[in-house]
Design brief:
Blueprint: H1 3-22, H2 32-43, H3 45-61, H4 69-93, H5 102-132, H6 136-173
């Protein structure tokens, strides 16, 4: 990575951390996943993944909900999902003219937010269950309200925000 990309990674990671602390009182509603996704979409999978790892390196160690090393590692490496998917889609969708397709793309990105968050939550819930010795099915059942809120809030955030943010970033990048 060049200096420009390193500075973008640091800036977006700082934005992830700051927004997580700002939204600490609203459980499972965060824009961090979206920021990591957009970083990957605009700058590639490696950059997106780096933003996710760096964000959790900092936020996870000074997490207001406590620090559990195994869960911290699971969240850090699960966050990479968003950057990787963003990078993959950025290569496929970047040349798309959003005009006239905004509604379809918004629904598409909302679905991406929902599906990627499902896998993130599945991985982190399995690790949480393992760490605390809880049967996985029980952990999934007990965590269902939080998981559902996380998945649907990400679906809304991704669906509403992706097209306008990428459009603006594309104009700035020209």
């Amino acid at each position: 990575m060049n200096v420009r990309k390193v500075s973008i990674v640091a800036t977006l990671a700082a934005l992830c951390i700051a927004t997580n602390y700002a939204l600490v009182g609203i459980h499972q509603v965060k824009v961090m996943d979206f920021i990591v996704f957009v970083g990957g979409f605009c700058l590639g999978s490696l950059v997106g993944a780096s933003i996710g790892v760096l964000s959790w390196l900092v936020y996870g160690t000074i997490n207001p909900y406590g620090f559990v090393p195994q869960v911290w590692l699971a969240t850090m490496f699960s966050e990479v999902i968003y950057g990787l998917i963003g990078g993959f889609l950025g290569k496929k969708v970047a040349q798309t003219n959003f005009n006239g397709k905004r509604l379809r793309l918004s629904v598409f990105f909302g679905a991406i937010g929902l599906i990627s968050t499902f896998f993130y939550d599945l991985a982190t819930n399995v690790v949480w269950a393992w760490v605390y010795g809880v049967p996985i099915i029980v952990a999934i059942f007990l965590g269902a309200p939080f998981t559902i809120l996380h998945e649907f809030s990400n679906a809304v955030i991704f669906g509403v925000s992706t097209v306008p943010v990428i459009t603006v970033l594309e104009k700035i990048g020209r």
